[in-house]
Amino acid sequence: MSHHLVVRVIAKLLIPFILLFGLYVQFHGDFGPGGGFQAGVIFAAAFVLYALVYGLENARRIIPDKYIRMGTALGVLIFAGTGVAAMLLGANYLDYSVLAHDPPHGQHLGIFVVEFGVGLTVASVMVAIFFAFAGRGHKIDEMED
Amino acid sequence: MEWPGLYNYWIVIFLMMAGLYVVMARANLIKKMVGLSVFQASVFIFYLTMGKVAGGTAPIVIPGNPVYSNPLPHVLILTAIVVGVATLAMGLALIVRINEAYGTIEEDEIDAQEHDS
Amino acid sequence: MVLTVFLIIRLHNLFAVVMLSGIYSLLAATFFVVVDGVDVAFTEAAVGAGISTVLMLGALSLTTQHEKVAARSTWVPLAVVAVTGAALVYGTLDMPNYGDPDAPIHNHVAPRYIEDSLKETSVPNMVTAVLASYRGYDTLGEVTVIFTAGVGVLLLLVRVTGRRREEDEDAA
Predict the structure, then answer these.
(1) Of the four, A119, A139, B42, C42, which is 20 to 30 A from C32 by CA?
(2) CB-CB: which of B60, B78, B89 is closest to A32?
(3) Assembly ipTM
(4) What confidence score (pLDDT) does residue A48 get?
(5) How is domain B7-116 classified at the CATH fold level?
(6) CA A77, CA B51: separation in Å to the nearest integer?
Protein backbone atom coordinates (compact mmCIF):
# COMPACT_ATOMS: atom_id res chain seq x y z
CA MET A 1 0.00 0.00 0.00
CA SER A 2 3.05 2.22 0.34
CA HIS A 3 2.79 3.63 -3.20
CA HIS A 4 -0.48 5.46 -2.64
CA LEU A 5 0.43 9.06 -1.93
CA VAL A 6 -2.93 9.95 -0.41
CA VAL A 7 -2.83 7.01 1.98
CA ARG A 8 0.69 7.86 3.08
CA VAL A 9 -0.04 11.51 3.78
CA ILE A 10 -3.31 10.85 5.56
CA ALA A 11 -1.75 8.10 7.65
CA LYS A 12 1.05 10.44 8.67
CA LEU A 13 -1.54 13.03 9.67
CA LEU A 14 -3.70 10.55 11.57
CA ILE A 15 -1.12 8.59 13.53
CA PRO A 16 -0.17 11.35 16.02
CA PHE A 17 -3.84 11.95 16.75
CA ILE A 18 -4.50 8.25 17.23
CA LEU A 19 -1.61 8.06 19.68
CA LEU A 20 -2.81 11.18 21.47
CA PHE A 21 -6.33 9.77 21.64
CA GLY A 22 -4.91 6.53 23.02
CA LEU A 23 -3.14 8.46 25.79
CA TYR A 24 -6.31 10.44 26.52
CA VAL A 25 -8.35 7.26 26.80
CA GLN A 26 -5.70 5.71 29.02
CA PHE A 27 -5.40 8.53 31.51
CA HIS A 28 -8.94 9.88 31.34
CA GLY A 29 -10.41 6.44 31.91
CA ASP A 30 -11.07 7.29 35.55
CA PHE A 31 -13.52 10.02 34.62
CA GLY A 32 -15.10 9.03 31.34
CA PRO A 33 -15.39 5.90 29.28
CA GLY A 34 -12.00 4.40 28.69
CA GLY A 35 -9.20 2.62 30.45
CA GLY A 36 -6.27 0.36 29.89
CA PHE A 37 -7.95 -2.20 27.65
CA GLN A 38 -9.33 0.33 25.16
CA ALA A 39 -6.24 2.53 25.22
CA GLY A 40 -3.99 -0.44 24.56
CA VAL A 41 -5.99 -1.43 21.53
CA ILE A 42 -6.09 2.12 20.15
CA PHE A 43 -2.36 2.47 20.66
CA ALA A 44 -1.78 -0.82 18.88
CA ALA A 45 -4.06 0.32 16.06
CA ALA A 46 -1.75 3.28 15.43
CA PHE A 47 1.24 0.97 15.00
CA VAL A 48 -0.78 -1.43 12.87
CA LEU A 49 -1.77 1.45 10.61
CA TYR A 50 1.85 2.51 10.32
CA ALA A 51 2.94 -1.02 9.49
CA LEU A 52 0.20 -1.38 6.88
CA VAL A 53 1.04 1.86 5.10
CA TYR A 54 4.81 2.11 5.42
CA GLY A 55 5.69 -1.56 5.45
CA LEU A 56 6.52 -3.99 8.20
CA GLU A 57 10.27 -3.44 8.12
CA ASN A 58 9.94 0.29 8.84
CA ALA A 59 7.53 -0.39 11.67
CA ARG A 60 9.92 -2.95 13.13
CA ARG A 61 12.69 -0.35 13.00
CA ILE A 62 10.60 2.12 15.02
CA ILE A 63 9.60 -0.38 17.66
CA PRO A 64 11.88 -3.42 17.71
CA ASP A 65 10.53 -6.86 18.61
CA LYS A 66 12.64 -6.92 21.73
CA TYR A 67 10.85 -3.94 23.25
CA ILE A 68 7.43 -5.30 22.32
CA ARG A 69 8.17 -8.55 24.11
CA MET A 70 9.52 -6.69 27.11
CA GLY A 71 6.35 -4.58 27.10
CA THR A 72 4.07 -7.60 27.25
CA ALA A 73 5.80 -8.96 30.32
CA LEU A 74 6.35 -5.55 31.94
CA GLY A 75 2.64 -4.72 31.92
CA VAL A 76 1.74 -7.90 33.82
CA LEU A 77 4.63 -7.24 36.19
CA ILE A 78 3.41 -3.70 36.92
CA PHE A 79 -0.04 -5.07 37.71
CA ALA A 80 1.23 -7.88 39.92
CA GLY A 81 3.88 -5.60 41.42
CA THR A 82 1.24 -3.12 42.53
CA GLY A 83 -0.39 -5.96 44.43
CA VAL A 84 2.90 -6.93 46.01
CA ALA A 85 3.60 -3.31 46.94
CA ALA A 86 0.26 -3.11 48.71
CA MET A 87 1.08 -6.33 50.51
CA LEU A 88 4.47 -4.99 51.62
CA LEU A 89 2.73 -1.93 53.04
CA GLY A 90 0.61 -4.15 55.21
CA ALA A 91 -2.65 -4.60 53.30
CA ASN A 92 -4.15 -7.44 51.31
CA TYR A 93 -2.88 -8.29 47.85
CA LEU A 94 -4.19 -5.72 45.34
CA ASP A 95 -5.74 -3.60 48.09
CA TYR A 96 -4.55 -0.15 47.03
CA SER A 97 -5.87 1.75 50.04
CA VAL A 98 -2.46 1.92 51.68
CA LEU A 99 -0.58 3.30 48.68
CA ALA A 100 -1.21 6.95 49.60
CA HIS A 101 -1.97 8.99 52.70
CA ASP A 102 -5.69 8.17 52.75
CA PRO A 103 -7.64 5.24 51.26
CA PRO A 104 -9.51 6.97 48.39
CA HIS A 105 -6.29 8.54 47.10
CA GLY A 106 -4.52 5.22 47.44
CA GLN A 107 -7.28 3.51 45.51
CA HIS A 108 -7.12 6.16 42.80
CA LEU A 109 -3.36 5.82 42.51
CA GLY A 110 -3.56 2.05 42.46
CA ILE A 111 -6.21 2.04 39.74
CA PHE A 112 -4.13 4.48 37.71
CA VAL A 113 -1.00 2.35 37.91
CA VAL A 114 -2.83 -0.89 37.28
CA GLU A 115 -4.61 0.53 34.23
CA PHE A 116 -1.24 1.59 32.89
CA GLY A 117 0.01 -1.97 33.27
CA VAL A 118 -3.08 -3.30 31.49
CA GLY A 119 -2.67 -0.80 28.66
CA LEU A 120 0.99 -1.65 28.21
CA THR A 121 0.35 -5.38 28.02
CA VAL A 122 -2.64 -5.10 25.70
CA ALA A 123 -0.88 -2.71 23.32
CA SER A 124 2.29 -4.78 23.12
CA VAL A 125 0.46 -8.09 22.74
CA MET A 126 -1.71 -6.71 19.92
CA VAL A 127 1.28 -5.25 18.10
CA ALA A 128 3.24 -8.48 18.65
CA ILE A 129 0.40 -10.61 17.28
CA PHE A 130 -0.01 -8.37 14.24
CA PHE A 131 3.73 -8.40 13.54
CA ALA A 132 3.74 -12.18 13.90
CA PHE A 133 0.95 -12.57 11.30
CA ALA A 134 2.42 -9.99 8.93
CA GLY A 135 5.98 -11.28 9.32
CA ARG A 136 4.82 -14.78 8.45
CA GLY A 137 3.82 -13.61 4.97
CA HIS A 138 7.27 -12.28 4.18
CA LYS A 139 8.92 -15.47 5.29
CA ILE A 140 6.66 -17.57 3.10
CA ASP A 141 7.73 -15.48 0.11
CA GLU A 142 11.36 -16.28 0.82
CA MET A 143 10.64 -20.01 1.27
CA GLU A 144 13.59 -20.81 3.44
CA ASP A 145 12.78 -24.48 4.01
CA MET B 1 -46.04 -9.45 29.58
CA GLU B 2 -45.66 -5.91 28.35
CA TRP B 3 -43.39 -4.72 25.58
CA PRO B 4 -40.35 -5.04 25.45
CA GLY B 5 -40.63 -8.05 27.74
CA LEU B 6 -38.30 -10.87 26.89
CA TYR B 7 -37.56 -10.23 23.24
CA ASN B 8 -33.95 -9.24 23.97
CA TYR B 9 -33.23 -12.79 25.12
CA TRP B 10 -34.75 -14.21 21.96
CA ILE B 11 -32.56 -12.06 19.75
CA VAL B 12 -29.55 -13.24 21.75
CA ILE B 13 -30.65 -16.85 21.36
CA PHE B 14 -31.10 -16.41 17.62
CA LEU B 15 -27.60 -14.95 17.22
CA MET B 16 -26.14 -17.60 19.50
CA MET B 17 -27.73 -20.42 17.54
CA ALA B 18 -26.58 -18.87 14.26
CA GLY B 19 -23.02 -18.90 15.57
CA LEU B 20 -23.38 -22.46 16.77
CA TYR B 21 -24.78 -23.50 13.39
CA VAL B 22 -21.81 -21.98 11.55
CA VAL B 23 -19.39 -23.76 13.86
CA MET B 24 -21.10 -27.12 13.36
CA ALA B 25 -22.17 -27.03 9.73
CA ARG B 26 -19.17 -25.44 8.02
CA ALA B 27 -15.94 -27.28 7.43
CA ASN B 28 -13.82 -24.20 6.81
CA LEU B 29 -11.75 -23.37 9.89
CA ILE B 30 -11.73 -19.59 9.42
CA LYS B 31 -15.49 -19.61 9.01
CA LYS B 32 -15.69 -21.57 12.23
CA MET B 33 -13.72 -18.81 13.95
CA VAL B 34 -16.16 -16.21 12.60
CA GLY B 35 -19.01 -18.35 13.90
CA LEU B 36 -17.35 -18.46 17.30
CA SER B 37 -17.04 -14.68 17.41
CA VAL B 38 -20.72 -14.32 16.47
CA PHE B 39 -21.55 -16.66 19.34
CA GLN B 40 -19.25 -14.70 21.65
CA ALA B 41 -20.82 -11.36 20.73
CA SER B 42 -24.25 -12.79 21.43
CA VAL B 43 -23.13 -13.64 24.95
CA PHE B 44 -21.85 -10.07 25.37
CA ILE B 45 -25.25 -8.75 24.30
CA PHE B 46 -26.93 -11.12 26.74
CA TYR B 47 -24.91 -9.81 29.67
CA LEU B 48 -25.40 -6.16 28.78
CA THR B 49 -29.15 -6.44 28.30
CA MET B 50 -29.34 -8.03 31.75
CA GLY B 51 -27.44 -5.06 33.19
CA LYS B 52 -29.75 -2.46 31.65
CA VAL B 53 -32.14 -0.68 33.99
CA ALA B 54 -35.12 1.04 32.36
CA GLY B 55 -34.52 4.78 32.31
CA GLY B 56 -30.96 4.25 33.52
CA THR B 57 -27.85 6.01 32.34
CA ALA B 58 -24.25 4.95 31.81
CA PRO B 59 -22.51 4.04 35.09
CA ILE B 60 -20.35 7.15 35.36
CA VAL B 61 -21.07 9.35 38.36
CA ILE B 62 -22.69 12.62 37.33
CA PRO B 63 -24.30 15.38 39.40
CA GLY B 64 -27.89 14.84 40.34
CA ASN B 65 -29.36 11.56 41.35
CA PRO B 66 -29.90 9.53 38.19
CA VAL B 67 -30.60 5.82 37.89
CA TYR B 68 -27.46 4.00 36.80
CA SER B 69 -27.33 0.79 34.84
CA ASN B 70 -25.57 -2.11 36.51
CA PRO B 71 -21.79 -1.70 36.08
CA LEU B 72 -20.89 -5.29 36.90
CA PRO B 73 -21.77 -6.92 33.53
CA HIS B 74 -19.90 -4.11 31.79
CA VAL B 75 -16.74 -4.94 33.69
CA LEU B 76 -17.01 -8.65 32.99
CA ILE B 77 -17.64 -8.13 29.28
CA LEU B 78 -14.99 -5.45 28.89
CA THR B 79 -12.27 -7.89 29.86
CA ALA B 80 -13.96 -10.73 27.98
CA ILE B 81 -13.84 -8.80 24.70
CA VAL B 82 -10.10 -8.24 24.88
CA VAL B 83 -9.45 -11.80 26.01
CA GLY B 84 -11.71 -12.87 23.14
CA VAL B 85 -9.53 -11.14 20.57
CA ALA B 86 -6.41 -12.65 22.12
CA THR B 87 -7.83 -16.17 21.90
CA LEU B 88 -9.08 -15.42 18.38
CA ALA B 89 -5.53 -14.52 17.42
CA MET B 90 -4.35 -17.76 18.99
CA GLY B 91 -6.88 -19.77 16.97
CA LEU B 92 -5.97 -18.00 13.76
CA ALA B 93 -2.29 -18.69 14.43
CA LEU B 94 -3.11 -22.39 14.81
CA ILE B 95 -5.09 -22.26 11.54
CA VAL B 96 -2.13 -20.71 9.76
CA ARG B 97 0.10 -23.51 11.02
CA ILE B 98 -2.46 -26.14 10.01
CA ASN B 99 -2.59 -24.60 6.55
CA GLU B 100 1.18 -24.89 6.29
CA ALA B 101 1.19 -28.50 7.45
CA TYR B 102 -1.75 -29.80 5.40
CA GLY B 103 -2.10 -27.23 2.61
CA THR B 104 -5.79 -26.76 3.34
CA ILE B 105 -8.09 -25.28 5.97
CA GLU B 106 -11.08 -27.52 5.19
CA GLU B 107 -11.76 -29.96 7.97
CA ASP B 108 -12.92 -32.74 5.62
CA GLU B 109 -9.73 -32.63 3.56
CA ILE B 110 -7.56 -32.70 6.68
CA ASP B 111 -9.50 -35.75 7.86
CA ALA B 112 -9.04 -37.43 4.49
CA GLN B 113 -5.28 -36.79 4.57
CA GLU B 114 -5.04 -38.21 8.07
CA HIS B 115 -6.83 -41.41 7.02
CA ASP B 116 -4.65 -41.88 3.94
CA SER B 117 -1.43 -41.78 5.88
CA MET C 1 -27.56 -7.57 12.86
CA VAL C 2 -29.79 -10.49 12.03
CA LEU C 3 -29.33 -9.81 8.31
CA THR C 4 -25.55 -9.66 8.74
CA VAL C 5 -25.59 -13.04 10.44
CA PHE C 6 -27.67 -14.55 7.62
CA LEU C 7 -25.12 -13.31 5.11
CA ILE C 8 -22.25 -14.70 7.20
CA ILE C 9 -23.90 -18.11 7.04
CA ARG C 10 -24.71 -17.95 3.33
CA LEU C 11 -21.61 -16.43 1.73
CA HIS C 12 -18.69 -18.57 0.71
CA ASN C 13 -16.21 -15.81 -0.04
CA LEU C 14 -14.19 -15.62 3.16
CA PHE C 15 -13.12 -12.02 2.52
CA ALA C 16 -16.75 -10.94 2.50
CA VAL C 17 -17.44 -13.03 5.59
CA VAL C 18 -14.62 -11.34 7.52
CA MET C 19 -15.84 -7.89 6.46
CA LEU C 20 -19.35 -8.82 7.57
CA SER C 21 -18.08 -9.96 10.94
CA GLY C 22 -16.49 -6.51 11.30
CA ILE C 23 -19.84 -4.91 10.49
CA TYR C 24 -21.49 -7.25 12.96
CA SER C 25 -19.10 -6.07 15.67
CA LEU C 26 -19.78 -2.44 14.86
CA LEU C 27 -23.53 -3.03 15.07
CA ALA C 28 -22.99 -4.80 18.38
CA ALA C 29 -21.05 -1.74 19.58
CA THR C 30 -23.91 0.62 18.68
CA PHE C 31 -26.26 -1.72 20.51
CA PHE C 32 -24.02 -1.57 23.59
CA VAL C 33 -24.35 2.24 23.60
CA VAL C 34 -28.13 1.82 23.62
CA VAL C 35 -27.97 -0.38 26.71
CA ASP C 36 -25.62 2.07 28.50
CA GLY C 37 -22.43 0.06 28.17
CA VAL C 38 -20.31 2.94 26.90
CA ASP C 39 -17.01 1.38 27.97
CA VAL C 40 -17.95 -1.92 26.43
CA ALA C 41 -19.09 -0.26 23.21
CA PHE C 42 -15.79 1.55 23.01
CA THR C 43 -13.87 -1.69 23.42
CA GLU C 44 -16.03 -3.61 20.99
CA ALA C 45 -15.65 -0.94 18.32
CA ALA C 46 -11.88 -0.81 18.74
CA VAL C 47 -11.31 -4.55 19.16
CA GLY C 48 -14.09 -6.29 17.30
CA ALA C 49 -14.36 -4.01 14.32
CA GLY C 50 -10.70 -2.98 14.23
CA ILE C 51 -8.06 -5.35 15.46
CA SER C 52 -9.82 -8.67 14.99
CA THR C 53 -10.80 -7.80 11.41
CA VAL C 54 -7.19 -6.94 10.67
CA LEU C 55 -6.03 -10.21 12.25
CA MET C 56 -8.54 -12.25 10.28
CA LEU C 57 -7.45 -10.56 7.06
CA GLY C 58 -3.87 -11.40 7.98
CA ALA C 59 -4.84 -15.03 8.46
CA LEU C 60 -6.71 -14.98 5.14
CA SER C 61 -3.68 -13.65 3.31
CA LEU C 62 -1.71 -16.58 4.70
CA THR C 63 -4.31 -19.20 3.80
CA THR C 64 -7.07 -18.99 1.20
CA GLN C 65 -9.92 -16.68 0.29
CA HIS C 66 -12.57 -19.15 -0.81
CA GLU C 67 -14.45 -21.63 1.20
CA LYS C 68 -15.13 -24.92 -0.56
CA VAL C 69 -18.78 -25.81 -0.49
CA ALA C 70 -18.98 -28.79 1.79
CA ALA C 71 -21.01 -31.79 0.72
CA ARG C 72 -21.95 -32.70 4.25
CA SER C 73 -25.56 -32.78 5.34
CA THR C 74 -26.87 -29.69 7.12
CA TRP C 75 -29.81 -31.45 8.75
CA VAL C 76 -28.05 -32.69 11.85
CA PRO C 77 -26.63 -29.26 12.86
CA LEU C 78 -29.96 -27.62 12.06
CA ALA C 79 -31.80 -30.08 14.26
CA VAL C 80 -29.33 -29.62 17.12
CA VAL C 81 -29.56 -25.83 16.81
CA ALA C 82 -33.36 -25.91 16.73
CA VAL C 83 -33.59 -28.12 19.81
CA THR C 84 -31.02 -26.10 21.76
CA GLY C 85 -32.68 -22.84 20.75
CA ALA C 86 -36.10 -24.09 21.81
CA ALA C 87 -34.70 -25.20 25.15
CA LEU C 88 -33.10 -21.79 25.68
CA VAL C 89 -36.28 -19.92 24.75
CA TYR C 90 -38.15 -22.09 27.23
CA GLY C 91 -35.50 -21.13 29.80
CA THR C 92 -36.01 -17.40 29.20
CA LEU C 93 -39.69 -17.58 30.15
CA ASP C 94 -38.64 -17.33 33.79
CA MET C 95 -36.22 -14.47 33.20
CA PRO C 96 -36.94 -10.91 34.38
CA ASN C 97 -38.18 -8.47 31.75
CA TYR C 98 -35.79 -6.24 29.86
CA GLY C 99 -34.89 -3.17 31.93
CA ASP C 100 -36.66 -4.43 35.05
CA PRO C 101 -35.04 -2.58 38.00
CA ASP C 102 -36.04 -5.35 40.42
CA ALA C 103 -34.18 -8.12 38.61
CA PRO C 104 -31.99 -10.24 40.91
CA ILE C 105 -28.83 -9.04 39.16
CA HIS C 106 -29.45 -5.47 40.39
CA ASN C 107 -29.82 -6.47 44.02
CA HIS C 108 -26.62 -8.33 44.76
CA VAL C 109 -23.33 -6.39 44.82
CA ALA C 110 -24.28 -3.77 42.23
CA PRO C 111 -25.91 -1.28 44.66
CA ARG C 112 -22.72 -1.16 46.67
CA TYR C 113 -20.65 -0.45 43.58
CA ILE C 114 -23.05 2.27 42.51
CA GLU C 115 -23.34 3.98 45.90
CA ASP C 116 -19.89 3.60 47.39
CA SER C 117 -17.39 3.42 44.57
CA LEU C 118 -16.94 7.21 44.32
CA LYS C 119 -16.42 7.51 48.08
CA GLU C 120 -14.07 4.56 48.31
CA THR C 121 -11.95 5.02 45.21
CA SER C 122 -12.54 8.65 44.11
CA VAL C 123 -12.96 7.40 40.56
CA PRO C 124 -16.22 8.59 38.95
CA ASN C 125 -16.28 5.89 36.28
CA MET C 126 -17.71 2.91 38.11
CA VAL C 127 -16.65 0.49 35.43
CA THR C 128 -13.01 1.47 35.88
CA ALA C 129 -13.31 1.35 39.67
CA VAL C 130 -14.84 -2.11 39.70
CA LEU C 131 -12.49 -3.36 37.00
CA ALA C 132 -9.24 -2.33 38.63
CA SER C 133 -10.07 -2.29 42.31
CA TYR C 134 -13.01 -4.42 43.41
CA ARG C 135 -12.30 -7.12 40.86
CA GLY C 136 -8.55 -6.62 40.69
CA TYR C 137 -7.78 -10.32 40.84
CA ASP C 138 -10.13 -10.98 37.96
CA THR C 139 -8.48 -8.36 35.81
CA LEU C 140 -5.01 -9.59 36.72
CA GLY C 141 -6.08 -13.01 35.52
CA GLU C 142 -7.41 -11.57 32.25
CA VAL C 143 -4.20 -9.68 31.63
CA THR C 144 -2.27 -12.87 32.23
CA VAL C 145 -4.47 -14.66 29.71
CA ILE C 146 -3.77 -11.97 27.13
CA PHE C 147 -0.06 -12.21 27.88
CA THR C 148 -0.15 -15.99 27.50
CA ALA C 149 -2.08 -15.76 24.23
CA GLY C 150 0.51 -13.31 22.92
CA VAL C 151 3.35 -15.63 23.88
CA GLY C 152 1.49 -18.53 22.28
CA VAL C 153 1.02 -16.71 18.99
CA LEU C 154 4.68 -15.72 18.95
CA LEU C 155 5.70 -19.33 19.61
CA LEU C 156 3.45 -20.59 16.82
CA LEU C 157 4.21 -18.03 14.15
CA VAL C 158 7.64 -16.53 14.65
CA ARG C 159 10.36 -18.73 13.27
CA VAL C 160 13.47 -18.47 15.40
CA THR C 161 16.89 -19.75 14.45
CA GLY C 162 20.27 -19.92 16.16
CA ARG C 163 21.28 -16.80 18.00
CA ARG C 164 17.79 -15.30 18.04
CA ARG C 165 16.42 -18.30 19.89
CA GLU C 166 18.66 -17.55 22.84
CA GLU C 167 17.45 -13.96 22.85
CA ASP C 168 13.86 -15.15 22.89
CA GLU C 169 14.44 -17.37 25.85
CA ASP C 170 15.96 -14.45 27.68
CA ALA C 171 12.97 -12.29 26.82
CA ALA C 172 10.51 -14.92 27.94
Answers:
(1) A119
(2) B60
(3) 0.82
(4) 87
(5) Helix Hairpins (1.10.287)
(6) 32
